[in-house]
Amino acid sequence: MTTSAEDRTLVLLRHASAESASAGQDDRERSLTDAGREEAQDVGRWLVEQGIGCDEVMCSPAQRTRETMAEIAAGGCAEAEVEIEHRLYNAGAEEVLAVVREAREDASVLLVVGHAPGLPAAASLLADGDGSAPAHDLLAEGFPPGAVAVLRYCGPWTELAFDSATLDRFHVPVPVS
């Protein structure tokens, strides 16, 4: 397979399972559960198995997204410096796209860690049915906590648009027994 300098990989990751909000607790302060930590480590191992390393990471400021990134690193996936992007908290698909368009031009692989429903909607709209049929089948079943959509795109990040990428892979972490 021939690659060009404009071949891009966009990894959209929903944070792993988090504890329920307690009375009076700010939603942004929710931590991962033990199962969520294991899910995120599974994702880290899966990314390594897939040969996916990250050149740039954009992460929602929520505690659960930041903890997800730490556990991915613990799972073996070396992380780039994590940029906290406040617009990713409760972002809709359009806002997720706007954030991605601001990625560094030299980043070939961008990991975005955020929340549902914006992240799953962005994955669906970016690929719009193009790519791997098994990956689309999994995506159609839902985008649970810890799920990862890997999309391919050719061009500058600034020109990424809905229906301009292909869904290459979709991974749901292995449930903890």
Gist of the model:
Residues 25-40 have a biased composition (Basic and acidic residues). By secondary structure, the protein is an alpha/beta fold. The chain is 31% helix and 19% strand.
Structure characterization notes:
This protein has one domain (7-17, 31-171): 3-Layer(aba) Sandwich (Rossmann fold), CATH 3.40.50.1240. 31% of the residues lie in helices and 19% in strands. It contains 5 helices and 6 strands, in the order βαβαβαβααββ. It has helices at 34-49, 63-74, 93-100, 118-127, 133-140; strands spanning 7-14, 56-59, 82-84, 109-114, 148-154, 166-171. It has a 6-stranded mixed β-sheet with strand order 3-2-4-1-5-6, sandwiched between helices. Strand 2 (56-59), helix 2 and strand 3 (82-84) form a beta-alpha-beta unit. Helix 1 packs across helix 2 (63-74) and helix 3 crosses helix 4 (118-127).
Low-confidence stretches: none
Which fold name corresponds to the CATH topology?
Rossmann fold
Mean pLDDT over the residues: 92
Q: What is the global morphology? A: globular
Helix content: 25-40%
Largest sheet: 6 strands, mixed
What class would the helix/strand composition place it in? Answer: alpha/beta
